Input
Amino acid sequence: MWNGSNPYLPGTDLKVWLDGKIVHMNDAKVSVFDHGLLYGDGVFEGIRAYNGKVFQMEAHMRRVYEGAGAICLKIPIGKEEFGKAIYDTLRANNLQNAYIRAVVTRGAGYLGLHPAKTANPSVFIITCALSLYPLELYEKGMPIVTASTIRNHPHALSAQVKSLNYLNNIMAQIEATQAGAVEAVMLNHQGYVAECTGDNIFAVRKGELWTPPASAGILEGVTRAVVLELGRRRRIPVCEKNMTRHDLYVSDECFLTGTGAEIMPITHIDQRQIGCGKIGVMTKQLLEDFWACTRGETDVQV
Output
């Protein structure tokens, strides 16, 4: 069983792309006056590279630019240059398979919330070898819990903005850790299932594939979108609908989706067994289809 160690393990000699330059990780520094640090003012993307190719680059670039635009943050480089910088960083670290963190901050300035107190936005890109969950979990599944920390209200900052302020998710993650679990389900202000701290959630009921809608206050994950398309290609009825904890408890199968997790089977929620307590048939099919996408055997653009 996974021992709770951090799956994102950077090396000690990584190169980082920082504002147009490749620098050693020890020299990759931002100011203590950067509003990304002071106020969580910025956006980021978690991306994967498989066999030297960035997975769903267009979807990730679209989301980071849309998120920045939504908070009136102008990214100082274009999408093409941003994409090239990601590949340059992968090559600088001699990585073919990697987790990529692309970050845009409001920039350094002075104390005070107003964006006018900042200078130029800062962009940095980190790439590192990804230590995935052990294969055992993909074969046997894992347990999760429900957090008492609810998801941020969807009528506050849109959940579609992947902002640098992740404290809401962090508090739920602390609850998961304290309960001896890896992940926690977060409910929204209405008590419906929203998402987990870093992943979207799916349930299988009577041959249908269920997942919460955007209106539930979720981030519409790129992996989530790929899985929805894979489900449609298999002619699986796909339902984006409000879900309760009861829906999860009585589901036939359950799994999480995310950049790092890919498709992670769930066998227990709040100590309740899901289905037969093993990875389900539909989950296994979708996981195999997803891995085929990462190998370039199937093309899915979302």
Confidence is low (pLDDT under 50) at residues 1-5. The radius of gyration is 19 Å.
